[in-house]
Amino acid sequence: MSNLDKTILITGANGGVGFVMCRYFLCQGYNVIGVSRSTDKLQELDFERFSFYKLNICRKDDIIQVVNEITATETIDVLINNAAVFESKELVEQSYESMDTMIDTNLKGTIMMTKAILPSMLSAGHGKIINISSVSGCHGIENQAVYSATKHALAGFAESLNYELIPKGLQIVNICPGGIDTELWNQNNPYNGDKSRLLDPEDIAEMACHVVQSPDRIIFKNLIMFPSNEMH
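Above: the chain's sequence. Below: its structure in token form.
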């Protein structure tokens, strides 16, 4: 199957890593569908093979509606669960609303998107699901208790789900990057290090593309990526 025959669905597509992945895969010749709560930036991607939908992945009914609309005419070959919310703060300082948002987006949203897309992939008999996780899902990091909990949960979700998927020609993998140079780091979430040495969003896109292009006989699990100034 050529790239032009493959369709990739990317969540959290309107900014940061999601937007860069959309552009990267489009430049590689793939068909790309972006979904995001906001879609203003996605309108900049002037590619014939690109479409986008407004979607808040915290809302189950919206997920079902949008995924049904997409899969009525498209076969999704790759789902990239990229949408996530991050806050670096001591647990006693975090609001309950912030904790809910991280759990609903990072964990429940990812699970619900995966569940919604799976029938189409199972019917086709092939497919790859890529979760953009974090090194915080591999070990605990100070001031990231709730965020880390959501990413650790994704590791268990993917490992368990693979037992269902691999015999059916599908697989799910977590890409776990360290610090990435995006708007994620700001005055509310300061990065305590040399920002010039952070991973570039395109590094994540290249790794995701490597997974997509690898033969189905290769099974990936957790792919951990550190910037050179950050090894824990």
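The first strand starts at residue 7 and ends at 11.
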